Amino acid sequence: MAKPRLRIIPLGGVGEIGKSMTVYEYRNDLIVIDAGAKFPEEDLRGVDLIIPDVGYIKQRLNKLRAILLTHGHEDHIGGISFILNEFKSIAPVPIYGSELAIAYARAKLEDYSDPKLADFRVVEPRKRYRLGQHFEVEFIPVTHSIPGSYAIALKTPLGWVVHTGDYKFDPTPPLGPRTDEERLKQLGREGVLVLLSDAVRVERPGHTPSEAVVSETLDRIIGAAEGRVVLTTFASNITRIDQAIRAAHRHGRKVAISGRSMEQSTRIAQELGYLHPPDGVLVPVEIAMTLPRKQAMLLTTGSQGEATAALARIASSDHPHIRLTPGDLVIFSATPIPGNEQTVSETIDQLFRMGIKVIYPDIEPTVHVSGHASREELKHMLRLLRPRFCVPVHGEYRHLALYRELALELGYLPERVVIPELGSVLSFSREDVRREGTVDCGPVLVDFVTPTHAVLRRRDEVASSGVIIAAFVIDRETGKLIAGPEVTAEGLNGKVSAETLAKVTEEFKRFLAKQKGGFSHGYLVSRTKSVLGRQLYRRAKFRPLILPLISEL
Protein backbone atom coordinates (compact mmCIF):
# COMPACT_ATOMS: atom_id res chain seq x y z
CA MET A 1 0.00 0.00 0.00
CA ALA A 2 1.38 3.39 -1.02
CA LYS A 3 2.32 5.77 1.74
CA PRO A 4 0.16 8.92 2.05
CA ARG A 5 1.59 12.04 0.44
CA LEU A 6 1.07 15.74 1.07
CA ARG A 7 -0.64 17.50 -1.83
CA ILE A 8 -0.14 21.25 -2.38
CA ILE A 9 -2.28 22.93 -5.06
CA PRO A 10 -2.05 26.65 -5.89
CA LEU A 11 -5.43 27.93 -7.10
CA GLY A 12 -4.15 31.49 -7.45
CA GLY A 13 -1.11 33.68 -6.86
CA VAL A 14 1.50 31.86 -8.97
CA GLY A 15 2.48 33.15 -12.39
CA GLU A 16 0.50 36.27 -11.45
CA ILE A 17 0.20 38.96 -8.79
CA GLY A 18 -3.05 38.61 -6.90
CA LYS A 19 -5.82 36.20 -5.92
CA SER A 20 -3.51 34.19 -3.70
CA MET A 21 -5.01 30.86 -2.63
CA THR A 22 -3.31 27.53 -1.90
CA VAL A 23 -4.78 24.15 -0.94
CA TYR A 24 -2.98 21.74 1.42
CA GLU A 25 -4.34 18.21 1.49
CA TYR A 26 -3.30 15.14 3.44
CA ARG A 27 -5.53 12.07 3.48
CA ASN A 28 -8.97 13.22 4.74
CA ASP A 29 -7.94 16.75 5.79
CA LEU A 30 -7.83 19.83 3.60
CA ILE A 31 -6.97 23.40 4.55
CA VAL A 32 -6.71 26.57 2.51
CA ILE A 33 -4.29 29.47 2.93
CA ASP A 34 -5.67 32.85 1.79
CA ALA A 35 -8.64 33.69 -0.41
CA GLY A 36 -7.51 36.65 -2.47
CA ALA A 37 -8.70 38.71 -5.41
CA LYS A 38 -6.89 40.64 -8.11
CA PHE A 39 -7.63 43.66 -10.25
CA PRO A 40 -8.33 42.95 -13.92
CA GLU A 41 -5.62 43.74 -16.43
CA GLU A 42 -5.87 45.99 -19.46
CA ASP A 43 -7.61 43.42 -21.66
CA LEU A 44 -10.42 42.86 -19.11
CA ARG A 45 -11.56 46.41 -18.48
CA GLY A 46 -15.20 46.25 -17.49
CA VAL A 47 -14.58 43.40 -15.05
CA ASP A 48 -14.32 44.55 -11.43
CA LEU A 49 -12.39 41.76 -9.70
CA ILE A 50 -11.00 38.31 -10.44
CA ILE A 51 -11.04 35.52 -7.86
CA PRO A 52 -9.90 31.86 -7.91
CA ASP A 53 -12.13 29.03 -9.04
CA VAL A 54 -12.84 26.90 -5.96
CA GLY A 55 -14.51 24.00 -7.75
CA TYR A 56 -11.84 21.58 -6.51
CA ILE A 57 -12.59 22.51 -2.90
CA LYS A 58 -16.36 22.40 -3.42
CA GLN A 59 -16.05 18.76 -4.47
CA ARG A 60 -14.28 18.02 -1.14
CA LEU A 61 -16.10 20.20 1.36
CA ASN A 62 -16.36 17.29 3.79
CA LYS A 63 -12.55 17.49 4.10
CA LEU A 64 -12.23 21.29 4.51
CA ARG A 65 -11.01 22.08 8.04
CA ALA A 66 -10.24 25.82 7.86
CA ILE A 67 -9.16 28.84 5.83
CA LEU A 68 -6.01 30.53 7.17
CA LEU A 69 -5.24 34.19 6.40
CA THR A 70 -1.65 35.42 6.21
CA HIS A 71 -2.67 39.11 6.34
CA GLY A 72 -5.38 41.58 5.42
CA HIS A 73 -4.42 42.78 1.94
CA GLU A 74 -6.90 42.51 -0.91
CA ASP A 75 -4.82 40.01 -2.88
CA HIS A 76 -5.03 37.63 0.10
CA ILE A 77 -8.56 38.19 1.49
CA GLY A 78 -10.41 40.03 -1.30
CA GLY A 79 -12.29 36.95 -2.49
CA ILE A 80 -13.38 35.71 0.93
CA SER A 81 -17.03 36.80 0.78
CA PHE A 82 -17.63 35.35 -2.70
CA ILE A 83 -15.75 32.14 -1.92
CA LEU A 84 -17.61 31.49 1.33
CA ASN A 85 -20.88 31.86 -0.59
CA GLU A 86 -19.74 28.76 -2.48
CA PHE A 87 -19.26 26.86 0.79
CA LYS A 88 -22.68 27.58 2.35
CA SER A 89 -23.49 23.91 2.78
CA ILE A 90 -20.86 23.55 5.53
CA ALA A 91 -21.16 27.00 7.10
CA PRO A 92 -19.74 28.32 9.28
CA VAL A 93 -16.23 27.71 7.97
CA PRO A 94 -13.42 28.28 10.53
CA ILE A 95 -11.32 31.30 9.50
CA TYR A 96 -8.03 31.89 11.34
CA GLY A 97 -5.94 35.07 11.19
CA SER A 98 -4.71 38.16 12.97
CA GLU A 99 -7.16 40.53 14.61
CA LEU A 100 -6.81 43.01 11.75
CA ALA A 101 -7.08 40.44 8.95
CA ILE A 102 -10.17 38.95 10.60
CA ALA A 103 -11.76 42.39 10.99
CA TYR A 104 -11.19 43.17 7.32
CA ALA A 105 -12.56 39.78 6.27
CA ARG A 106 -15.63 40.25 8.45
CA ALA A 107 -16.26 43.65 6.86
CA LYS A 108 -16.16 42.08 3.40
CA LEU A 109 -18.73 39.50 4.43
CA GLU A 110 -20.94 42.25 5.83
CA ASP A 111 -20.74 44.07 2.49
CA TYR A 112 -21.24 41.23 0.03
CA SER A 113 -22.35 38.13 1.91
CA ASP A 114 -23.17 37.05 5.48
CA PRO A 115 -20.74 36.99 8.44
CA LYS A 116 -22.53 33.89 9.70
CA LEU A 117 -20.84 31.92 6.93
CA ALA A 118 -17.56 32.20 8.88
CA ASP A 119 -16.42 31.13 12.32
CA PHE A 120 -13.77 33.79 12.88
CA ARG A 121 -10.87 32.90 15.17
CA VAL A 122 -8.19 35.44 16.11
CA VAL A 123 -4.83 33.72 16.59
CA GLU A 124 -1.90 34.24 18.92
CA PRO A 125 1.72 34.06 17.71
CA ARG A 126 3.53 30.75 18.30
CA LYS A 127 0.39 29.05 19.61
CA ARG A 128 -0.50 25.69 17.98
CA TYR A 129 -3.98 25.03 16.58
CA ARG A 130 -5.15 21.54 15.68
CA LEU A 131 -6.94 21.26 12.30
CA GLY A 132 -8.46 17.85 11.71
CA GLN A 133 -6.50 14.66 12.31
CA HIS A 134 -3.32 15.49 10.44
CA PHE A 135 -2.56 19.21 10.62
CA GLU A 136 -1.40 21.60 13.29
CA VAL A 137 -0.84 25.25 12.48
CA GLU A 138 1.29 27.99 14.02
CA PHE A 139 1.31 31.69 13.09
CA ILE A 140 4.70 33.43 13.04
CA PRO A 141 4.86 37.27 12.94
CA VAL A 142 6.52 38.82 9.89
CA THR A 143 6.93 42.44 8.85
CA HIS A 144 5.01 43.67 5.83
CA SER A 145 3.21 46.89 4.87
CA ILE A 146 0.25 46.04 7.08
CA PRO A 147 0.23 45.04 10.79
CA GLY A 148 -0.92 41.58 11.75
CA SER A 149 1.01 39.78 9.00
CA TYR A 150 2.00 36.15 9.55
CA ALA A 151 3.98 33.36 8.01
CA ILE A 152 2.08 30.13 8.53
CA ALA A 153 3.80 26.94 9.67
CA LEU A 154 1.91 23.69 9.14
CA LYS A 155 2.95 20.62 11.07
CA THR A 156 2.12 17.59 8.95
CA PRO A 157 2.87 13.88 9.41
CA LEU A 158 5.74 14.40 6.93
CA GLY A 159 7.28 17.44 8.64
CA TRP A 160 6.88 21.21 8.81
CA VAL A 161 5.65 23.20 5.83
CA VAL A 162 6.16 26.97 5.95
CA HIS A 163 4.08 29.35 3.85
CA THR A 164 5.71 32.77 4.21
CA GLY A 165 2.89 35.00 3.03
CA ASP A 166 4.15 38.47 2.10
CA TYR A 167 7.13 39.44 4.20
CA LYS A 168 10.41 41.29 4.57
CA PHE A 169 12.97 41.66 7.36
CA ASP A 170 12.30 45.27 8.43
CA PRO A 171 14.43 46.19 11.47
CA THR A 172 12.33 49.29 12.26
CA PRO A 173 8.66 48.61 11.43
CA PRO A 174 6.44 51.61 12.34
CA LEU A 175 3.56 49.33 13.37
CA GLY A 176 3.76 45.80 14.75
CA PRO A 177 6.62 43.50 15.73
CA ARG A 178 9.66 42.55 13.68
CA THR A 179 9.83 39.23 11.85
CA ASP A 180 10.24 36.44 14.43
CA GLU A 181 13.59 35.17 13.17
CA GLU A 182 14.23 33.12 16.31
CA ARG A 183 11.14 30.96 15.77
CA LEU A 184 11.95 30.56 12.08
CA LYS A 185 15.44 29.38 13.02
CA GLN A 186 13.95 26.89 15.50
CA LEU A 187 11.71 25.48 12.78
CA GLY A 188 14.78 25.07 10.59
CA ARG A 189 16.43 23.03 13.33
CA GLU A 190 13.29 20.92 13.78
CA GLY A 191 13.20 20.19 10.06
CA VAL A 192 11.19 21.90 7.32
CA LEU A 193 9.93 19.70 4.52
CA VAL A 194 8.68 22.45 2.15
CA LEU A 195 9.05 26.22 2.02
CA LEU A 196 6.54 28.19 -0.06
CA SER A 197 8.13 31.61 -0.35
CA ASP A 198 7.06 35.04 -1.54
CA ALA A 199 9.17 35.69 -4.67
CA VAL A 200 7.79 38.89 -6.19
CA ARG A 201 10.85 41.06 -5.43
CA VAL A 202 13.54 38.55 -6.34
CA GLU A 203 14.78 40.85 -9.14
CA ARG A 204 15.88 43.47 -6.60
CA PRO A 205 19.34 43.03 -5.03
CA GLY A 206 20.11 43.62 -1.38
CA HIS A 207 17.48 44.41 1.24
CA THR A 208 14.14 46.20 0.90
CA PRO A 209 14.26 49.59 2.64
CA SER A 210 12.49 50.01 5.97
CA GLU A 211 9.08 51.66 6.17
CA ALA A 212 10.77 54.30 8.35
CA VAL A 213 12.32 55.76 5.17
CA VAL A 214 8.85 56.64 3.87
CA SER A 215 8.01 58.59 7.03
CA GLU A 216 10.99 60.87 6.42
CA THR A 217 10.10 61.39 2.74
CA LEU A 218 6.44 62.15 3.41
CA ASP A 219 7.38 64.61 6.14
CA ARG A 220 9.65 66.47 3.72
CA ILE A 221 7.22 66.52 0.80
CA ILE A 222 4.12 67.46 2.80
CA GLY A 223 6.06 70.13 4.68
CA ALA A 224 7.13 71.79 1.41
CA ALA A 225 3.70 71.65 -0.30
CA GLU A 226 1.97 75.00 -0.89
CA GLY A 227 -1.48 73.79 -1.89
CA ARG A 228 -3.74 70.93 -0.93
CA VAL A 229 -2.11 67.52 -0.67
CA VAL A 230 -3.83 64.33 -1.81
CA LEU A 231 -2.16 61.03 -0.93
CA THR A 232 -3.34 57.81 -2.49
CA THR A 233 -2.35 54.33 -1.39
CA PHE A 234 -3.93 50.92 -0.86
CA ALA A 235 -6.90 51.25 1.46
CA SER A 236 -5.54 48.49 3.70
CA ASN A 237 -2.04 50.00 3.96
CA ILE A 238 -2.53 51.09 7.55
CA THR A 239 1.17 51.79 8.02
CA ARG A 240 1.14 54.34 5.19
CA ILE A 241 -2.09 55.94 6.38
CA ASP A 242 -0.61 56.33 9.88
CA GLN A 243 2.58 57.87 8.43
CA ALA A 244 0.61 60.32 6.30
CA ILE A 245 -1.68 61.46 9.12
CA ARG A 246 1.25 62.10 11.44
CA ALA A 247 3.18 64.03 8.78
CA ALA A 248 0.13 66.15 8.02
CA HIS A 249 -0.41 66.91 11.71
CA ARG A 250 3.22 67.99 12.15
CA HIS A 251 2.74 70.55 9.39
CA GLY A 252 -0.58 71.94 10.60
CA ARG A 253 -2.88 70.14 8.18
CA LYS A 254 -6.26 68.56 8.82
CA VAL A 255 -6.85 65.19 7.16
CA ALA A 256 -9.96 63.94 5.38
CA ILE A 257 -10.47 60.43 4.05
CA SER A 258 -12.28 59.76 0.77
CA GLY A 259 -13.14 56.37 -0.67
CA ARG A 260 -15.41 53.79 0.87
CA SER A 261 -12.79 51.09 1.36
CA MET A 262 -10.28 53.50 2.90
CA GLU A 263 -12.91 54.94 5.24
CA GLN A 264 -13.80 51.42 6.33
CA SER A 265 -10.18 50.32 6.68
CA THR A 266 -9.26 53.37 8.76
CA ARG A 267 -12.28 52.97 11.02
CA ILE A 268 -11.44 49.32 11.71
CA ALA A 269 -7.78 50.13 12.39
CA GLN A 270 -8.79 52.82 14.88
CA GLU A 271 -11.22 50.51 16.64
CA LEU A 272 -8.49 47.88 17.03
CA GLY A 273 -5.90 50.37 18.24
CA TYR A 274 -3.57 50.26 15.24
CA LEU A 275 -4.23 53.90 14.41
CA HIS A 276 -4.13 56.72 16.97
CA PRO A 277 -4.72 59.97 15.05
CA PRO A 278 -3.97 63.11 17.09
CA ASP A 279 -7.11 64.73 18.47
CA GLY A 280 -8.92 66.88 15.94
CA VAL A 281 -6.75 66.00 12.95
CA LEU A 282 -9.42 63.97 11.12
CA VAL A 283 -12.26 65.99 9.59
CA PRO A 284 -15.00 65.31 7.03
CA VAL A 285 -14.14 65.93 3.38
CA GLU A 286 -16.64 68.77 3.20
CA ILE A 287 -14.82 70.57 6.04
CA ALA A 288 -11.37 69.94 4.56
CA MET A 289 -12.41 71.57 1.28
CA THR A 290 -13.37 74.79 3.08
CA LEU A 291 -9.97 75.14 4.77
CA PRO A 292 -7.09 77.21 3.38
CA ARG A 293 -5.37 74.97 0.84
CA LYS A 294 -2.17 74.72 2.87
CA GLN A 295 -4.12 73.38 5.85
CA ALA A 296 -5.77 70.40 4.14
CA MET A 297 -4.71 66.91 3.18
CA LEU A 298 -6.88 64.19 1.65
CA LEU A 299 -6.26 60.43 1.79
CA THR A 300 -7.97 58.66 -1.10
CA THR A 301 -8.38 55.33 -2.81
CA GLY A 302 -7.22 54.97 -6.41
CA SER A 303 -3.50 54.22 -6.26
CA GLN A 304 -3.99 51.51 -8.90
CA GLY A 305 -6.06 53.68 -11.24
CA GLU A 306 -9.24 51.85 -10.21
CA ALA A 307 -12.09 53.15 -12.33
CA THR A 308 -14.54 53.82 -9.51
CA ALA A 309 -12.08 54.97 -6.85
CA ALA A 310 -12.07 58.46 -5.39
CA LEU A 311 -8.93 59.58 -7.23
CA ALA A 312 -10.34 58.54 -10.63
CA ARG A 313 -13.38 60.69 -9.95
CA ILE A 314 -11.18 63.58 -8.81
CA ALA A 315 -9.09 63.31 -11.99
CA SER A 316 -12.31 63.28 -14.02
CA SER A 317 -13.75 66.34 -12.18
CA ASP A 318 -16.68 64.19 -11.11
CA HIS A 319 -16.13 63.88 -7.34
CA PRO A 320 -19.12 65.25 -5.41
CA HIS A 321 -16.96 67.19 -2.96
CA ILE A 322 -13.31 67.36 -4.07
CA ARG A 323 -12.02 69.74 -6.73
CA LEU A 324 -8.30 70.27 -7.17
CA THR A 325 -6.73 73.40 -8.61
CA PRO A 326 -3.34 74.06 -10.21
CA GLY A 327 -0.63 74.01 -7.56
CA ASP A 328 -2.21 71.22 -5.54
CA LEU A 329 -0.18 68.05 -5.04
CA VAL A 330 -1.06 64.36 -5.49
CA ILE A 331 1.26 61.72 -3.99
CA PHE A 332 1.09 58.12 -5.25
CA SER A 333 2.43 56.14 -2.28
CA ALA A 334 2.20 52.80 -4.06
CA THR A 335 3.65 51.10 -7.11
CA PRO A 336 1.36 49.71 -9.83
CA ILE A 337 0.53 46.03 -9.60
CA PRO A 338 1.69 44.33 -12.84
CA GLY A 339 -1.13 44.80 -15.35
CA ASN A 340 -2.22 48.14 -13.87
CA GLU A 341 0.67 50.23 -15.18
CA GLN A 342 -1.24 51.75 -18.10
CA THR A 343 -4.26 52.64 -15.99
CA VAL A 344 -2.11 54.33 -13.36
CA SER A 345 -0.18 56.22 -16.05
CA GLU A 346 -3.42 57.51 -17.58
CA THR A 347 -4.59 58.82 -14.20
CA ILE A 348 -1.24 60.55 -13.60
CA ASP A 349 -1.33 62.09 -17.11
CA GLN A 350 -4.83 63.44 -16.53
CA LEU A 351 -3.77 65.05 -13.24
CA PHE A 352 -0.83 66.73 -14.99
CA ARG A 353 -3.23 68.06 -17.66
CA MET A 354 -5.22 69.68 -14.84
CA GLY A 355 -2.10 71.51 -13.65
CA ILE A 356 -1.68 69.31 -10.59
CA LYS A 357 1.79 68.42 -9.36
CA VAL A 358 2.18 64.64 -9.03
CA ILE A 359 4.82 62.73 -7.10
CA TYR A 360 5.14 58.99 -7.66
CA PRO A 361 7.84 56.35 -7.10
CA ASP A 362 9.50 56.80 -10.51
CA ILE A 363 10.51 60.35 -9.61
CA GLU A 364 10.68 60.04 -5.80
CA PRO A 365 11.59 56.38 -5.02
CA THR A 366 11.17 56.58 -1.24
CA VAL A 367 7.62 57.91 -1.37
CA HIS A 368 6.81 54.21 -1.21
CA VAL A 369 8.77 51.11 -0.24
CA SER A 370 7.81 47.56 -0.94
CA GLY A 371 6.53 45.21 1.73
CA HIS A 372 8.28 42.29 0.02
CA ALA A 373 11.68 40.70 0.57
CA SER A 374 14.53 41.47 -1.84
CA ARG A 375 17.19 38.91 -2.85
CA GLU A 376 19.31 38.96 0.30
CA GLU A 377 16.21 38.61 2.48
CA LEU A 378 14.95 35.70 0.39
CA LYS A 379 18.33 34.03 0.90
CA HIS A 380 18.15 34.78 4.62
CA MET A 381 14.79 33.01 4.88
CA LEU A 382 16.23 29.98 3.12
CA ARG A 383 19.20 29.92 5.51
CA LEU A 384 16.94 30.19 8.56
CA LEU A 385 14.55 27.41 7.52
CA ARG A 386 16.83 25.10 5.50
CA PRO A 387 13.89 23.38 3.79
CA ARG A 388 14.22 20.10 1.93
CA PHE A 389 12.07 21.45 -0.94
CA CYS A 390 11.44 25.03 -2.14
CA VAL A 391 8.36 26.28 -3.99
CA PRO A 392 8.31 29.98 -5.00
CA VAL A 393 4.87 31.59 -4.99
CA HIS A 394 3.41 35.10 -5.20
CA GLY A 395 5.02 36.27 -8.41
CA GLU A 396 4.84 36.23 -12.16
CA TYR A 397 6.61 33.37 -13.92
CA ARG A 398 9.92 35.21 -14.26
CA HIS A 399 9.94 35.82 -10.49
CA LEU A 400 9.42 32.12 -9.83
CA ALA A 401 12.17 31.19 -12.29
CA LEU A 402 14.61 33.70 -10.80
CA TYR A 403 13.87 32.42 -7.30
CA ARG A 404 14.74 28.94 -8.50
CA GLU A 405 18.10 30.26 -9.73
CA LEU A 406 18.64 31.95 -6.36
CA ALA A 407 18.01 28.68 -4.52
CA LEU A 408 20.37 26.82 -6.85
CA GLU A 409 23.06 29.43 -6.07
CA LEU A 410 22.70 28.45 -2.40
CA GLY A 411 23.35 24.81 -3.21
CA TYR A 412 19.84 23.36 -3.63
CA LEU A 413 19.54 20.53 -6.13
CA PRO A 414 17.39 21.28 -9.19
CA GLU A 415 14.92 18.51 -8.37
CA ARG A 416 14.24 20.10 -4.97
CA VAL A 417 13.19 23.55 -6.28
CA VAL A 418 9.81 23.33 -7.98
CA ILE A 419 8.15 26.05 -10.06
CA PRO A 420 4.39 25.62 -9.62
CA GLU A 421 1.66 26.32 -12.13
CA LEU A 422 -1.90 27.37 -11.38
CA GLY A 423 -3.88 24.24 -10.63
CA SER A 424 -0.84 21.97 -10.66
CA VAL A 425 -0.89 19.25 -8.02
CA LEU A 426 2.47 18.98 -6.23
CA SER A 427 2.73 15.75 -4.27
CA PHE A 428 5.38 15.41 -1.54
CA SER A 429 6.85 12.57 0.44
CA ARG A 430 9.86 12.93 2.74
CA GLU A 431 12.10 11.86 -0.13
CA ASP A 432 10.68 13.35 -3.31
CA VAL A 433 8.22 15.65 -5.03
CA ARG A 434 6.24 14.85 -8.14
CA ARG A 435 3.57 16.45 -10.27
CA GLU A 436 0.23 14.66 -10.31
CA GLY A 437 -1.75 16.44 -12.99
CA THR A 438 -3.84 19.59 -12.68
CA VAL A 439 -7.21 20.70 -11.37
CA ASP A 440 -9.59 23.26 -12.88
CA CYS A 441 -8.65 26.73 -11.66
CA GLY A 442 -9.68 29.23 -14.31
CA PRO A 443 -10.39 32.79 -13.20
CA VAL A 444 -13.83 33.73 -11.92
CA LEU A 445 -14.90 37.24 -12.93
CA VAL A 446 -16.65 39.37 -10.32
CA ASP A 447 -19.02 41.87 -11.90
CA PHE A 448 -20.52 44.45 -9.53
CA VAL A 449 -23.92 45.18 -11.07
CA THR A 450 -24.65 47.46 -8.10
CA PRO A 451 -22.28 48.71 -5.36
CA THR A 452 -23.41 45.93 -3.02
CA HIS A 453 -24.45 43.17 -5.43
CA ALA A 454 -22.02 41.14 -7.51
CA VAL A 455 -22.43 38.46 -10.15
CA LEU A 456 -19.77 35.76 -10.53
CA ARG A 457 -19.02 34.83 -14.12
CA ARG A 458 -16.92 31.78 -14.97
CA ARG A 459 -15.24 31.43 -18.33
CA ASP A 460 -17.58 28.75 -19.64
CA GLU A 461 -20.61 30.71 -18.41
CA VAL A 462 -19.44 33.87 -20.18
CA ALA A 463 -19.36 31.92 -23.43
CA SER A 464 -22.92 30.69 -22.91
CA SER A 465 -24.52 33.80 -21.37
CA GLY A 466 -23.07 36.34 -23.77
CA VAL A 467 -21.27 39.67 -23.73
CA ILE A 468 -22.12 43.26 -24.66
CA ILE A 469 -19.21 45.04 -26.33
CA ALA A 470 -19.22 48.83 -26.56
CA ALA A 471 -16.55 50.19 -28.90
CA PHE A 472 -15.85 53.86 -29.60
CA VAL A 473 -13.03 56.29 -30.30
CA ILE A 474 -12.37 59.50 -28.38
CA ASP A 475 -10.01 62.44 -28.78
CA ARG A 476 -7.06 61.91 -26.43
CA GLU A 477 -6.76 65.63 -25.61
CA THR A 478 -10.38 66.79 -25.36
CA GLY A 479 -12.21 63.56 -24.57
CA LYS A 480 -14.72 64.27 -27.37
CA LEU A 481 -16.29 61.39 -29.26
CA ILE A 482 -14.67 60.82 -32.68
CA ALA A 483 -16.33 57.61 -33.83
CA GLY A 484 -18.97 55.21 -32.56
CA PRO A 485 -20.24 53.99 -30.29
CA GLU A 486 -20.90 50.60 -31.75
CA VAL A 487 -22.72 48.40 -29.25
CA THR A 488 -22.84 44.73 -30.21
CA ALA A 489 -24.17 41.63 -28.52
CA GLU A 490 -22.25 38.38 -28.69
CA GLY A 491 -23.86 35.06 -27.76
CA LEU A 492 -26.98 36.51 -26.12
CA ASN A 493 -29.26 34.13 -28.02
CA GLY A 494 -32.19 36.52 -28.37
CA LYS A 495 -32.12 37.85 -24.82
CA VAL A 496 -31.65 41.38 -26.17
CA SER A 497 -33.53 42.32 -29.34
CA ALA A 498 -32.00 44.36 -32.14
CA GLU A 499 -34.54 47.11 -31.41
CA THR A 500 -33.53 47.24 -27.74
CA LEU A 501 -29.85 47.30 -28.66
CA ALA A 502 -30.46 50.18 -31.07
CA LYS A 503 -32.30 52.21 -28.41
CA VAL A 504 -29.59 51.51 -25.84
CA THR A 505 -26.97 52.63 -28.36
CA GLU A 506 -28.79 55.91 -29.02
CA GLU A 507 -29.16 56.63 -25.31
CA PHE A 508 -25.50 55.86 -24.81
CA LYS A 509 -24.58 58.27 -27.63
CA ARG A 510 -26.52 61.01 -25.84
CA PHE A 511 -24.60 60.27 -22.63
CA LEU A 512 -21.26 60.53 -24.45
CA ALA A 513 -22.30 63.77 -26.12
CA LYS A 514 -22.85 65.34 -22.71
CA GLN A 515 -19.34 64.54 -21.54
CA LYS A 516 -17.07 67.55 -21.43
CA GLY A 517 -13.82 65.61 -21.59
CA GLY A 518 -11.03 65.78 -19.07
CA PHE A 519 -11.60 62.37 -17.52
CA SER A 520 -9.42 59.38 -16.82
CA HIS A 521 -9.68 56.47 -19.22
CA GLY A 522 -10.54 54.03 -16.45
CA TYR A 523 -13.31 56.27 -15.20
CA LEU A 524 -14.86 56.39 -18.67
CA VAL A 525 -14.78 52.59 -18.75
CA SER A 526 -16.67 52.51 -15.47
CA ARG A 527 -19.26 55.05 -16.61
CA THR A 528 -19.76 53.22 -19.89
CA LYS A 529 -20.44 50.02 -18.04
CA SER A 530 -22.85 51.60 -15.55
CA VAL A 531 -24.84 53.57 -18.16
CA LEU A 532 -25.20 50.61 -20.52
CA GLY A 533 -25.95 48.20 -17.69
CA ARG A 534 -28.69 50.44 -16.31
CA GLN A 535 -30.32 50.89 -19.74
CA LEU A 536 -30.15 47.20 -20.62
CA TYR A 537 -31.68 46.14 -17.33
CA ARG A 538 -34.43 48.74 -17.61
CA ARG A 539 -35.36 47.62 -21.12
CA ALA A 540 -34.55 43.89 -21.13
CA LYS A 541 -34.33 42.93 -17.41
CA PHE A 542 -30.97 41.36 -18.16
CA ARG A 543 -27.45 41.94 -16.74
CA PRO A 544 -24.85 40.66 -19.22
CA LEU A 545 -21.10 41.14 -18.96
CA ILE A 546 -20.24 44.51 -20.50
CA LEU A 547 -16.78 45.10 -21.95
CA PRO A 548 -16.03 48.67 -23.10
CA LEU A 549 -13.37 48.93 -25.83
CA ILE A 550 -12.17 52.52 -25.92
CA SER A 551 -9.54 53.79 -28.33
CA GLU A 552 -7.88 57.20 -28.08
CA LEU A 553 -6.57 59.20 -31.07
UniProtKB/TrEMBL annotation:
Keyword set includes Secreted: no
Keyword rRNA processing among record annotations: yes
Name of one Pfam family that matches: RNase_J_b_CASP
GO molecular function, a single term: RNA binding
This protein's UniProt keywords: Calcium, Cytoplasm, Endonuclease, Exonuclease, Hydrolase, Metal-binding, Nuclease, RNA-binding, rRNA processing, Zinc
Active site: 198 (proton donor), 372 (proton acceptor)
Binding site for Zn(2+): 71, 73, 75-76, 144, 166, 394
Main location: cytoplasm
Major enzyme class: hydrolase
Matches recorded under InterPro entries: Metallo-B-lactamas (IPR001279), RibonucZ/Hydroxyglut_hydro (IPR036866), RMMBL (IPR011108), RNase_J (IPR004613), RNase_J_2 (IPR042173), RNase_J_b_CASP (IPR055132), RNase_J_bac (IPR030854), RNase_J_C (IPR041636)
One cellular component term from this protein's GO annotations in UniProt: cytoplasm
Regions annotated as coiled coil: none
Swiss-Prot/TrEMBL cofactor(s): Zn(2+); Ca(2+)
Job description of the protein: An RNase that has 5'-3' exonuclease and possibly endonuclease activity. Involved in maturation of rRNA and in some organisms also mRNA maturation and/or decay.
Similarity remark: Belongs to the metallo-beta-lactamase superfamily. RNA-metabolizing metallo-beta-lactamase-like family. Bacterial RNase J subfamily.
Name the record gives this protein: Ribonuclease J
Organism this protein belongs to: Thermomicrobium roseum (strain ATCC 27502 / DSM 5159 / P-2)
Highest classification ranks of the organism: Bacteria, Pseudomonadati, Thermomicrobiota, Thermomicrobia, Thermomicrobiales
